[in-house]
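Dear colleague,

Thank you for sharing your sequence with our group. We've completed the structure prediction you requested, and as agreed, I am returning the results in plain text so they can be pasted directly into your records. Please verify that the sequence below matches your submission; if there's any discrepancy, let me know and we will rerun it promptly.
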Amino acid sequence: MRALCHRRTFLLAAAGSAAFPVVARARDADVPYVPTPPEVVEGMLDMAGLKPGERLIDLGSGDGRIPMAAVRRGASALGVEIDSDLVARARAKARFAGLEGRVHFVRDDLFTVSLRDADVVTLYLLPDVNERLKPKLLSEMKPGARVVSHAFDMGDWPPDEHREVSEKHVYLWTIPAIAGGDWRLRRSDGFSATLAIAQRYSRVSGMLDSRAIRDAKLAGATLSFTADGVAYRGTVGDRAIVGDSWRAERVD
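Please find the predicted structure tokens below.
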């Protein structure tokens, strides 16, 4: 429950109240079906760094081309589509391609399907839908998971990378851990200090006691910074940040 509270607080600060409530609506009211060109599909998966054994979820999966491309790379994949005709088309294409049982398609709403086991989520939606999805992506996906969007960005959430693939825009984000807040930092040499971190998405800054930290970076669950000439690098968990010779415990 504490971890959930920290994440919810972060989301309210980062996504802004305008992103709430999340309202589920059908594709024909929100997103017309326009297929992603094959070369953009491959570019999206390249950009995500999709690895064999990872799990991809495509929100608004249309005829299933992105999930099927993912399983051809050794990943598991789920396509989520509200249009029952498109779900049937995707399932038929998967059978014809010999991918039945390796890729799955469900008729479901992209705002209600769970994203907790996704390593990669792919999108080709409209800007306002991306905005409404943003809190769900940040709250459900694990730190280090990736989001790739064809054509449209996420508003005030800056992408980690932006490319043009066959003259189409593709954006990549990495889900950040929740590092914001106050921590008690202790090093193996006995040094102790209060670490206060301010966070907005993956952007972090802060103070170690009264001294500003420098070169602060948050990449997924990996936090790094320097203070007083000492370099710190650690993994952010729910209640602790753990480095090789230091540890910080969250202060309630």
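Summary note from our side: The chain has a mean pLDDT of 90.

Kind regards,
the structure core
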